[in-house]
Specification:
single chain, alpha/beta, six-stranded parallel beta sheet, binds 2'-monophosphoadenosine-5'-diphosphate
Length: about 290
Protein backbone atom coordinates (compact mmCIF):
# COMPACT_ATOMS: atom_id res chain seq x y z
CA UNK A 1 0.00 0.00 0.00
CA UNK A 2 1.24 3.51 -0.78
CA UNK A 3 1.35 5.70 2.32
CA UNK A 4 2.88 9.03 3.34
CA UNK A 5 6.09 7.13 4.10
CA UNK A 6 6.49 5.44 0.72
CA UNK A 7 9.71 6.29 -1.15
CA UNK A 8 9.40 6.96 -4.86
CA UNK A 9 11.74 5.69 -7.60
CA UNK A 10 11.18 5.73 -11.33
CA UNK A 11 12.41 5.78 -14.90
CA UNK A 12 12.51 8.77 -17.22
CA UNK A 13 12.76 8.41 -20.97
CA UNK A 14 10.84 8.98 -24.17
CA UNK A 15 9.16 6.61 -24.83
CA UNK A 16 8.83 4.65 -21.57
CA UNK A 17 5.46 3.00 -21.97
CA UNK A 18 6.98 -0.39 -22.89
CA UNK A 19 9.67 -0.32 -20.20
CA UNK A 20 10.08 -3.60 -18.30
CA UNK A 21 11.79 -1.85 -15.37
CA UNK A 22 8.68 -0.95 -13.30
CA UNK A 23 7.67 -4.63 -13.19
CA UNK A 24 11.16 -5.73 -12.13
CA UNK A 25 11.74 -3.11 -9.44
CA UNK A 26 8.26 -3.17 -7.91
CA UNK A 27 8.42 -6.96 -7.62
CA UNK A 28 11.87 -6.71 -6.03
CA UNK A 29 10.84 -3.95 -3.56
CA UNK A 30 7.86 -6.12 -2.53
CA UNK A 31 9.94 -9.24 -2.15
CA UNK A 32 12.39 -7.67 0.27
CA UNK A 33 9.64 -5.80 2.15
CA UNK A 34 10.69 -2.24 1.23
CA UNK A 35 8.04 0.50 1.30
CA UNK A 36 9.16 1.77 -2.13
CA UNK A 37 7.39 2.27 -5.43
CA UNK A 38 8.78 2.61 -9.00
CA UNK A 39 6.94 4.68 -11.59
CA UNK A 40 7.50 5.42 -15.33
CA UNK A 41 7.74 9.10 -16.35
CA UNK A 42 7.67 10.14 -20.01
CA UNK A 43 9.90 13.23 -20.24
CA UNK A 44 10.74 15.15 -23.43
CA UNK A 45 14.30 16.44 -23.88
CA UNK A 46 13.21 20.06 -23.47
CA UNK A 47 11.66 19.18 -20.09
CA UNK A 48 14.64 17.22 -18.77
CA UNK A 49 16.05 19.99 -16.57
CA UNK A 50 12.62 20.70 -15.05
CA UNK A 51 12.09 16.97 -14.51
CA UNK A 52 15.35 16.49 -12.62
CA UNK A 53 14.81 19.61 -10.52
CA UNK A 54 11.26 18.42 -9.83
CA UNK A 55 12.57 15.02 -8.78
CA UNK A 56 14.97 16.68 -6.31
CA UNK A 57 12.23 18.96 -4.96
CA UNK A 58 9.79 16.09 -4.49
CA UNK A 59 12.28 13.86 -2.73
CA UNK A 60 12.39 11.13 -5.37
CA UNK A 61 15.05 8.70 -4.17
CA UNK A 62 16.31 7.22 -7.42
CA UNK A 63 15.77 7.22 -11.16
CA UNK A 64 16.71 5.15 -14.14
CA UNK A 65 17.43 7.16 -17.26
CA UNK A 66 16.78 5.71 -20.68
CA UNK A 67 16.77 6.74 -24.33
CA UNK A 68 17.22 9.54 -25.35
CA UNK A 69 18.49 11.18 -22.13
CA UNK A 70 21.47 9.11 -20.97
CA UNK A 71 24.11 11.66 -22.01
CA UNK A 72 22.07 14.87 -21.78
CA UNK A 73 21.22 14.18 -18.12
CA UNK A 74 24.85 14.53 -17.00
CA UNK A 75 24.83 18.32 -16.92
CA UNK A 76 22.06 18.30 -14.31
CA UNK A 77 23.86 15.97 -11.87
CA UNK A 78 26.26 16.73 -9.00
CA UNK A 79 28.65 13.75 -9.27
CA UNK A 80 29.36 10.77 -11.51
CA UNK A 81 30.79 7.43 -10.46
CA UNK A 82 33.89 6.14 -12.26
CA UNK A 83 32.11 4.06 -14.90
CA UNK A 84 29.56 6.78 -15.75
CA UNK A 85 32.37 9.35 -16.01
CA UNK A 86 34.38 7.16 -18.36
CA UNK A 87 31.41 6.12 -20.49
CA UNK A 88 29.92 9.62 -20.55
CA UNK A 89 26.39 8.29 -20.02
CA UNK A 90 24.16 7.67 -17.01
CA UNK A 91 21.35 5.15 -16.62
CA UNK A 92 20.91 5.37 -12.83
CA UNK A 93 20.63 8.36 -10.48
CA UNK A 94 20.88 8.09 -6.73
CA UNK A 95 19.54 11.11 -4.79
CA UNK A 96 21.11 11.44 -1.37
CA UNK A 97 22.93 13.69 1.05
CA UNK A 98 25.58 14.39 -1.61
CA UNK A 99 23.03 15.49 -4.19
CA UNK A 100 22.31 13.63 -7.42
CA UNK A 101 24.92 10.99 -8.25
CA UNK A 102 25.01 9.44 -11.73
CA UNK A 103 25.94 5.79 -12.30
CA UNK A 104 26.03 3.57 -15.37
CA UNK A 105 24.96 -0.04 -14.82
CA UNK A 106 24.58 -0.99 -18.50
CA UNK A 107 28.16 -2.17 -18.94
CA UNK A 108 28.30 -3.99 -15.61
CA UNK A 109 24.92 -5.54 -16.44
CA UNK A 110 26.37 -7.01 -19.63
CA UNK A 111 29.47 -8.27 -17.80
CA UNK A 112 27.38 -9.95 -15.09
CA UNK A 113 25.26 -11.63 -17.80
CA UNK A 114 28.40 -12.99 -19.47
CA UNK A 115 29.91 -13.97 -16.14
CA UNK A 116 27.02 -16.38 -15.53
CA UNK A 117 28.91 -18.42 -18.14
CA UNK A 118 32.58 -17.34 -18.04
CA UNK A 119 34.88 -14.68 -16.58
CA UNK A 120 35.78 -11.88 -19.02
CA UNK A 121 39.21 -11.44 -17.44
CA UNK A 122 41.97 -12.39 -19.90
CA UNK A 123 39.47 -13.25 -22.67
CA UNK A 124 39.54 -12.16 -26.30
CA UNK A 125 36.29 -10.39 -27.06
CA UNK A 126 34.71 -9.02 -30.24
CA UNK A 127 32.06 -6.31 -29.99
CA UNK A 128 29.83 -5.71 -33.03
CA UNK A 129 28.73 -2.05 -33.24
CA UNK A 130 30.15 1.19 -31.86
CA UNK A 131 27.07 3.06 -30.53
CA UNK A 132 26.05 3.88 -26.98
CA UNK A 133 25.64 0.27 -25.83
CA UNK A 134 28.98 -0.76 -27.34
CA UNK A 135 30.59 2.14 -25.51
CA UNK A 136 29.25 1.19 -22.09
CA UNK A 137 30.13 -2.47 -22.61
CA UNK A 138 33.63 -1.80 -24.03
CA UNK A 139 34.65 0.43 -21.11
CA UNK A 140 33.40 -2.13 -18.62
CA UNK A 141 35.13 -5.00 -20.45
CA UNK A 142 38.48 -3.22 -20.17
CA UNK A 143 37.80 -2.28 -16.54
CA UNK A 144 37.12 -6.00 -15.98
CA UNK A 145 40.53 -6.84 -17.49
CA UNK A 146 39.45 -8.38 -20.79
CA UNK A 147 42.73 -9.13 -22.53
CA UNK A 148 41.92 -8.29 -26.09
CA UNK A 149 39.08 -6.16 -27.44
CA UNK A 150 38.13 -6.00 -31.11
CA UNK A 151 35.43 -3.51 -32.10
CA UNK A 152 33.88 -4.20 -35.49
CA UNK A 153 31.57 -1.60 -36.96
CA UNK A 154 29.92 -0.69 -40.27
CA UNK A 155 31.27 2.87 -40.05
CA UNK A 156 34.96 2.57 -39.24
CA UNK A 157 35.20 6.23 -38.15
CA UNK A 158 32.77 5.55 -35.29
CA UNK A 159 34.81 2.55 -34.19
CA UNK A 160 37.93 4.73 -34.35
CA UNK A 161 36.30 7.41 -32.15
CA UNK A 162 35.38 4.81 -29.54
CA UNK A 163 38.84 3.26 -29.70
CA UNK A 164 40.53 6.68 -29.28
CA UNK A 165 38.46 7.36 -26.20
CA UNK A 166 39.12 3.91 -24.69
CA UNK A 167 42.85 4.15 -25.34
CA UNK A 168 43.08 7.70 -24.01
CA UNK A 169 41.19 6.97 -20.79
CA UNK A 170 42.28 3.40 -20.03
CA UNK A 171 45.58 3.12 -21.88
CA UNK A 172 44.88 -0.38 -23.21
CA UNK A 173 45.17 -1.82 -26.67
CA UNK A 174 41.99 -1.94 -28.79
CA UNK A 175 41.68 -3.28 -32.33
CA UNK A 176 39.07 -2.00 -34.78
CA UNK A 177 37.77 -3.50 -38.02
CA UNK A 178 34.95 -2.76 -40.40
CA UNK A 179 32.34 -5.35 -41.32
CA UNK A 180 34.01 -5.96 -44.67
CA UNK A 181 37.03 -7.53 -42.98
CA UNK A 182 37.45 -11.27 -42.50
CA UNK A 183 35.34 -11.68 -39.36
CA UNK A 184 35.55 -15.47 -39.61
CA UNK A 185 39.34 -15.36 -39.32
CA UNK A 186 39.16 -12.81 -36.51
CA UNK A 187 36.68 -15.05 -34.67
CA UNK A 188 38.91 -18.14 -34.81
CA UNK A 189 40.65 -17.23 -31.55
CA UNK A 190 37.84 -15.11 -30.07
CA UNK A 191 36.30 -16.31 -26.80
CA UNK A 192 33.25 -14.03 -26.59
CA UNK A 193 31.20 -12.29 -29.30
CA UNK A 194 28.82 -9.50 -28.26
CA UNK A 195 26.32 -7.97 -30.69
CA UNK A 196 25.33 -4.41 -29.76
CA UNK A 197 23.73 -3.49 -33.10
CA UNK A 198 19.93 -3.52 -33.47
CA UNK A 199 20.12 -6.14 -36.25
CA UNK A 200 17.48 -8.83 -35.65
CA UNK A 201 15.41 -6.66 -33.32
CA UNK A 202 11.61 -6.78 -33.67
CA UNK A 203 10.08 -6.02 -36.19
CA UNK A 204 13.16 -6.76 -38.36
CA UNK A 205 13.60 -10.25 -37.01
CA UNK A 206 14.63 -11.74 -40.36
CA UNK A 207 17.58 -9.39 -41.00
CA UNK A 208 20.65 -11.51 -41.63
CA UNK A 209 22.99 -11.43 -38.60
CA UNK A 210 26.48 -9.99 -39.12
CA UNK A 211 27.98 -13.32 -38.02
CA UNK A 212 26.59 -16.68 -39.16
CA UNK A 213 27.14 -20.28 -37.93
CA UNK A 214 29.86 -21.04 -40.50
CA UNK A 215 31.99 -18.23 -38.98
CA UNK A 216 31.69 -19.48 -35.39
CA UNK A 217 33.41 -22.23 -33.42
CA UNK A 218 32.04 -24.47 -30.66
CA UNK A 219 33.90 -22.80 -27.80
CA UNK A 220 32.65 -19.32 -28.75
CA UNK A 221 30.25 -17.64 -26.31
CA UNK A 222 27.70 -15.50 -28.14
CA UNK A 223 25.83 -12.68 -26.42
CA UNK A 224 23.21 -10.67 -28.32
CA UNK A 225 22.03 -7.64 -26.36
CA UNK A 226 18.83 -7.59 -28.42
CA UNK A 227 16.12 -9.27 -26.31
CA UNK A 228 13.06 -8.85 -28.49
CA UNK A 229 12.83 -11.53 -29.79
CA UNK A 230 14.62 -13.55 -27.11
CA UNK A 231 15.99 -15.88 -29.76
CA UNK A 232 17.48 -13.55 -32.37
CA UNK A 233 18.88 -14.67 -35.71
CA UNK A 234 22.39 -14.41 -34.21
CA UNK A 235 21.46 -16.64 -31.25
CA UNK A 236 19.96 -19.20 -33.66
CA UNK A 237 23.17 -19.18 -35.71
CA UNK A 238 25.21 -19.68 -32.52
CA UNK A 239 23.02 -22.66 -31.55
CA UNK A 240 23.53 -24.11 -35.02
CA UNK A 241 27.29 -23.83 -34.52
CA UNK A 242 27.09 -25.53 -31.11
CA UNK A 243 28.30 -22.33 -29.38
CA UNK A 244 27.09 -21.20 -25.92
CA UNK A 245 24.55 -18.37 -25.98
CA UNK A 246 23.57 -15.55 -23.62
CA UNK A 247 20.27 -13.75 -24.18
CA UNK A 248 20.05 -9.94 -24.09
CA UNK A 249 17.39 -10.22 -21.41
CA UNK A 250 20.15 -11.06 -18.91
CA UNK A 251 21.86 -7.69 -19.47
CA UNK A 252 18.53 -5.95 -18.90
CA UNK A 253 18.01 -7.98 -15.74
CA UNK A 254 21.49 -7.35 -14.31
CA UNK A 255 21.53 -3.62 -15.08
CA UNK A 256 18.30 -3.48 -13.04
CA UNK A 257 19.78 -5.57 -10.24
CA UNK A 258 22.80 -3.22 -10.09
CA UNK A 259 20.53 -0.12 -9.94
CA UNK A 260 18.53 -1.75 -7.16
CA UNK A 261 21.73 -2.44 -5.25
CA UNK A 262 22.85 1.19 -5.60
CA UNK A 263 19.53 2.49 -4.26
CA UNK A 264 18.95 0.01 -1.45
CA UNK A 265 22.33 -1.49 -0.58
CA UNK A 266 20.66 -4.89 -1.01
CA UNK A 267 21.61 -7.48 -3.61
CA UNK A 268 18.08 -8.53 -4.59
CA UNK A 269 17.10 -12.15 -5.24
CA UNK A 270 17.86 -12.81 -8.93
CA UNK A 271 14.79 -15.07 -9.30
CA UNK A 272 12.52 -12.16 -8.37
CA UNK A 273 13.91 -10.03 -11.21
CA UNK A 274 13.86 -13.00 -13.54
CA UNK A 275 10.27 -13.96 -12.75
CA UNK A 276 9.09 -10.35 -13.02
CA UNK A 277 10.66 -10.09 -16.49
CA UNK A 278 9.16 -13.40 -17.57
CA UNK A 279 5.73 -12.25 -16.40
CA UNK A 280 6.04 -8.89 -18.21
CA UNK A 281 7.07 -10.68 -21.39
CA UNK A 282 4.47 -13.45 -21.09
CA UNK A 283 7.17 -16.16 -21.15
CA UNK A 284 7.87 -19.27 -19.11
CA UNK A 285 11.64 -19.23 -19.32
CA UNK A 286 14.49 -17.26 -20.87
P1 LIG B 1 22.84 2.19 -29.19
O1 LIG B 1 23.08 3.56 -28.63
O2 LIG B 1 21.58 1.54 -28.72
O3 LIG B 1 24.02 1.31 -29.08
P2 LIG B 1 23.29 3.33 -31.79
O4 LIG B 1 24.10 4.38 -31.17
O5 LIG B 1 22.26 3.70 -32.79
O6 LIG B 1 22.53 2.43 -30.72
O7 LIG B 1 24.31 2.27 -32.40
C1 LIG B 1 23.90 1.30 -33.24
C2 LIG B 1 25.15 0.57 -33.76
O8 LIG B 1 24.69 -0.46 -34.59
C3 LIG B 1 26.05 1.47 -34.61
O9 LIG B 1 27.37 1.10 -34.39
C4 LIG B 1 25.59 1.12 -36.03
O10 LIG B 1 26.61 1.21 -36.99
P3 LIG B 1 27.06 2.62 -37.65
O11 LIG B 1 28.03 3.24 -36.67
O12 LIG B 1 27.69 2.25 -38.92
O13 LIG B 1 25.80 3.43 -37.82
C5 LIG B 1 25.21 -0.31 -35.89
N1 LIG B 1 24.18 -0.69 -36.87
C6 LIG B 1 22.89 -0.30 -36.88
N2 LIG B 1 22.25 -0.85 -37.92
C7 LIG B 1 23.16 -1.59 -38.60
C8 LIG B 1 23.12 -2.42 -39.76
N3 LIG B 1 21.99 -2.58 -40.45
N4 LIG B 1 24.25 -3.02 -40.15
C9 LIG B 1 25.42 -2.86 -39.46
N5 LIG B 1 25.52 -2.10 -38.34
C10 LIG B 1 24.40 -1.48 -37.91
Amino acid sequence: MITGKTSVFGIIGDPVEHSLSPGMHNAAFDSVGLDHIYVPFNVKTEELEDAINGARAMGIRGLNITIPHKTEIIKYLDYLDIAAGLIGAVNTIEFGENGAVGHNTDGIGAIRAIEEVTLVKEKKIMVLGAGGAARAISFQLLLSEAENLVISNRTIEKAQELKDDLVEKLDQEVIITDLGSDLKKELEDTDILINTTPIGMYPNINHKPLVTADMMHKELIVNDIVYNPLKTGLIMEAEKAGAKTISGIKMLMYQGIESFRIWTGIEPPIEIFQNALLKEMGLEKF
